[in-house]
Amino acid sequence: MKPAAPRDTGGVRRCIALLDQRRQLTNGDSQKRNELRSAIDQRDAGIAQLTPQLAKEAEVHQKNLEGIREACRIIRDSIATLVRPTRTARL
């Protein structure tokens, strides 16, 4: 009787190791996708919270600009009335 040929269990072990590695990578990728989705949701929520605040700040800024414009107009008119008599006197 011939002795039994040795089995190649190394190939099976390598195959199992590769399948385990693939499973771990797939699980890691899935976890990363979930983390990214969560981060995107948090970012979107932050943007949603800031939008009304930015609108309010823009409104306040616009009112400040209007006030500055009015103050400049008043100063310009005051200077114009002060300068006119001296110009007339020189002529």
Number of distinct helices: 1
Task: List low-pLDDT spans.
Answer: none
What's the mean pLDDT score? 86
Question: Largest sheet, if any?
Answer: none
Radius of gyration: 39 Å
Shape call = rod-shaped
Describe the protein's architecture and organization.
This protein has 91 residues and is an all-alpha fold. The chain is built from 1 helix and no strands. It has one helix spanning 9-90. The longest helix is centred in the middle third of the chain and has 82 residues, at 9-90.
State the gist of this model:
The protein is mostly helical. It has 1 helix and no strands.
SSE inventory with pairings:
Elements: H1 9-90
What would the keywords be for this entry?
single chain; 91 residues; mainly alpha; 1 helix; rod-shaped
